[in-house]
Structure formats: structure tokens, C-alpha cells
UniProtKB/TrEMBL annotation:
The chain crosses the membrane at residues 21-38, 59-82, 102-130. Signal peptide: none annotated. It comes from the Bacteria. It holds the Pfam family MamF_MmsF. It is a multi-pass membrane protein. This is DUF4870 domain-containing protein. InterPro entries: MamF_MmsF. Keywords: Membrane, Transmembrane, Transmembrane helix. It comes from Algibacter amylolyticus. It is found in: Membrane. Its main location: membrane.
Amino acid sequence: MLDNHQKNIATFIHLSTFSRFFIPFGNFIGPILLWSVNKDKSEFIDRNGKAIINFQLSVFLYAIILGTLSIPFFVFKIFSGIDFIDFNAFESFHITIGKPSPLLYIGGALGAIAVIGFIIELALIVVASLKARDGEVYKYPFTINFLK
């Protein structure tokens, strides 16, 4: 049977991912520290800790993939607009901005997907925290199980 202490620890493990706004990589450090200290105390805490760590690792992997896809589109567009031939000691240096390229639209769409994904990630963490408070283990969608 679960007591309130176990539910609170599981809830704080999920909520500790918000420490990323104050500490670099806090979304990994907080849950890993809380989980590693408390995982032997309860199966419920262990399952919640693994769930949030797997989710954060999955989100990190998806962000790397999305960044790898989107950054080249912006870089190619930026460098295609710079005219290096007319560079004469800052007197005639200019950047021409033409009509938007399809590459820019693709990069912008991938950036919008990243922003929407970030908002969904925050909402899922809050939902998982509320489920842990109620004594349930939340199964995050699109999560790769690195820790079993």
C-alpha cells in the first residue's frame, strides 16, 4: 500500500525536471538524484523515476534529431543571401534579402514543431505529476525505454 510520503517523492521526481529553468541539465540531474536516492524504498517510486528519466532522454534524443534537421535549412538560407563579391572595406557591403526560400519554410516548420513539442512536454510532466500524486504511474507517450 502506498503512503503519502511515497506519492510525494514520486511527484517531486516528476516536478524536478522543471529545475532545468534554473540549472543547466537540471531536467536530468534532479530526477536522477531523487530517483537514485529513493528507488530502493518503493517499487512505485522506482517505476515513476524510470518513467521520467526515460521520457527526458527520449525528448533529448528527439530534440537532437529535430535540431540536426532544422539548423542546416536556416544556415543555407542565411549564407545564400550574403553577397561576398561586393565586399569593399565596409563601404558597399550589403546583404540582399530576396523572397523567402522553401528551405526557410521547412526550417520554420521544424522550429514550430519544436516549440509545440516543448509545450506538450511541459503539459505531460504536469499530468504525470498529478497521476503520481494520486498513486498512479503515468506512461509517457513516444518514450523509448532506456531504463527497464
